[in-house]
């Protein structure tokens, strides 16, 4: 999709169809054909007037994310037509940079389709979007630096789609070694360093918890370490991703219905890859490390078992009481690795870690857990600028006691049924050193990472959760 800005008046731009976003307060609604057709401009409501070759799309209120959604609706609607190009003007309702950015992102996110496994690809004819830099009244846009905003929005939305595509890829096609190849490929195309450890390397690093989880898989586990290293960075940030290319539950096997879609369990890793892509394309003045634990959790004679005691990289022992709580075991080792190798100012981990987080916050919201209230607040602000939804879940010392083990340092599951998202994060906290407590934040993306029924600009499948909010947050580092 080619998106450009043109300094001509809308009428002088050559494109086949026009898109007009309307608020329900718009005067357009009171007279003429739109009112005859009963168009009320409710959110994402569309009305196409063929005589004017114009598609009207409703927007409920002047909120950035509603523009993102409306742009996605416009592109999805027009993808059923045969037009090749669309144009739109600046207007008094899209008068700030956040709205312009949201529209560009909405077009790109809305155009995403996952058809890798379809024999017949239904490719849209629409290939070009032209924004006039002027309003219909011939005034120049009030948004300064339109071109810069356009370039940035493209990077963010394309990185989100890149993450979606990886998440959607099947476990047969995307196993740990393949993920390592994808990371190397990304590093080759961008200016990133990439180091990969296979099972021998993991053994040398004493990453036995991670190794044990992957033992029954026919695929070797991989640790992937990407880095973006600009000169004189403003800060150093480590991003750790859960990369379970498949989670069958292991010997604590998931029931059949819950196993379907567990290719999604690599979403944290895929988000880290998407973030690294965007960070390098934007050349952010921040040193960013992406560390991925890529593992497949399977069953077999060699599988790790409930009752095993594992020894993590930092020497702490873990009693396994449920092999389906595997993500935290992989992350424990990866967090130790990150803290040992990188002296970071911030340490974030991304994981589809618990069903309990989905119970707590619903399908659309990422659970943020951290000791630092400031960190949670700054991430919530960044998220709301990008249309991602987050909710903070609080730690407390009583819940932490539920991870007590009679025979090892800690158990991999809680001994009580409630508060599972928090106890999972508190398990991870056990592997965060005292100096790093205030620097660490955990993102449980189990709810939003994978979409079972489309919402907003998110189609069925991977959503790219975590990518836009994190790049926004990293861009704000002063
Ligand atoms: N990958 C799952 C969590 C998950 C569930 C992600 C649903 C997305 C949707 C994780 O490894 C898991 O199985 N967690 C268990 C933990 C339990 C055994 C303590 C869960 O949430 O049930
Ligand atoms: Zn699991
Ligand atoms: Zn899992």
Task: Give me the secondary-structure category.
Answer: alpha/beta
* Helical amount: 25-40%
> What is the percentage of strand-forming residues?
15-25%
Compute the number of helices.
Answer: 15
Strand count: 19
The end-to-end distance, rounded to whole angstroms, is 33 Å
Q: How would you name the oligomeric state of the polypeptide chains in this document?
A: single chain
Largest sheet: 8 strands, mixed
Mean pLDDT: 96
Tell me the strand order in the biggest sheet: 7-8-10-9-13-17-14-15
Question: What value does the Rg take, in angstroms?
Answer: 24 Å
The set of bound ligands, ions and cofactors reads:
ligand BES, zinc ion
Low-confidence sequence ranges:
none
What would you say about this model in short?
With 478 residues, the protein is α/β, with parallel strands linked by helices.
Q: How would you characterize the overall build of this protein?
A:
This protein has about 475 residues and is an alpha/beta fold. It contains 15 helices and 19 strands. The strands form four sheets. It has an eight-stranded mixed β-sheet with strand order 7-8-10-9-13-17-14-15, with helices on both faces. A six-stranded mixed β-sheet has the order 1-6-5-2-4-3, covered by helices on one side. It has a three-stranded mixed β-sheet with strand order 11-12-16. Strand 5, helix 3 and strand 6 (about 130-135) form a beta-alpha-beta unit. The protein starts with a strand and ends with a helix. The structure holds ligand BES and zinc ion (2 copies). One zinc ion binds near residues 247, 265 and 326. One zinc ion binds next to loops.
């Amino acid at each position: 999709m080619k998106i450009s800005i043109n300094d001509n008046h809308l009428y002088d731009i050559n494109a086949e169809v026009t898109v007009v976003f309307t608020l329900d307060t718009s005067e357009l609604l009171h007279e003429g054909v739109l009112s005859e057709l009963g168009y009320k401009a409710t959110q994402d409501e569309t009305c196409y007037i063929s005589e004017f070759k114009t598609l009207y799309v409703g927007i409920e209120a002047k909120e950035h994310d509603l523009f993102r959604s409306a742009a996605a609706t416009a592109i999805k609607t027009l993808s059923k037509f045969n037009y090749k190009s669309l144009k739109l003007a600046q207007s008094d309702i899209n008068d700030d940079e956040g709205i312009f950015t949201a529209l560009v992102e909405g077009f790109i996110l809305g155009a995403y389709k996952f058809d890798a496994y379809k024999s017949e690809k239904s490719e849209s004819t629409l290939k070009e979007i032209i924004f006039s830099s002027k309003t219909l009244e011939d005034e120049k846009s009030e948004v300064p630096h339109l071109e810069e905003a356009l370039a940035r929005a493209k990077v963010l939305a394309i990185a989100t789609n890149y993450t979606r595509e990886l998440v959607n890829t099947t476990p047969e096609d995307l196993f740990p070694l393949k993920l390592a190849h994808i990371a190397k490929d990304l590093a080759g195309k961008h200016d990133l360093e990439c180091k990969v450890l296979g099972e021998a390397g993991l053994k040398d690093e004493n990453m036995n918890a991670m190794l044990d989880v992957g033992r029954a898989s026919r695929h070797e586990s991989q640790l992937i370490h990407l880095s973006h290293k600009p000169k004189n960075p403003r800060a150093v940030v480590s991003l750790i991703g859960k990369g379970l290319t498949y989670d069958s539950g292991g010997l604590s096997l998931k029931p059949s219905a819950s196993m379907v879609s567990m290719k999604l369990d690599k979403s944290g890793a895929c988000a880290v890859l998407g973030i690294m892509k965007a960070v390098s394309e934007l050349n952010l003045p921040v040193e960013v490390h992406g560390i991925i634990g890529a593992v497949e959790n399977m069953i077999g004679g060699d599988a790790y078992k409930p009752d095993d005691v594992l020894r993590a990289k930092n020497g702490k022992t873990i009693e396994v009481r449920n092999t389906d709580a595997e993500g935290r075991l992989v992350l424990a080792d990866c967090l130790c690795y990150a803290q040992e190798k990188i002296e970071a100012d911030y340490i974030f981990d991304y994981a589809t870690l618990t069903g309990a987080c989905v119970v707590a916050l619903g399908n659309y919201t990422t659970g943020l857990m951290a000791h630092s209230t400031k960190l949670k607040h700054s991430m919530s602000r960044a998220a709301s600028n990008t249309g991602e939804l987050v909710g903070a879940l609080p730690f407390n010392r009583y819940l932490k006691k539920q991870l007590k083990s009679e025979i090892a340092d800690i158990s991999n599951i809680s001994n009580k049924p409630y508060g599972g998202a928090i106890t999972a994060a508190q398990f991870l906290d056990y592997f965060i050193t005292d100096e790093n407590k205030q620097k660490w934040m955990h993102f449980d993306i189990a709810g939003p990472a994978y979409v079972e029924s489309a919402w907003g600009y998110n189609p069925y499948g991977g959503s790219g959760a975590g990518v836009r909010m994190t790049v926004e947050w990293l861009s704000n580092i002063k």
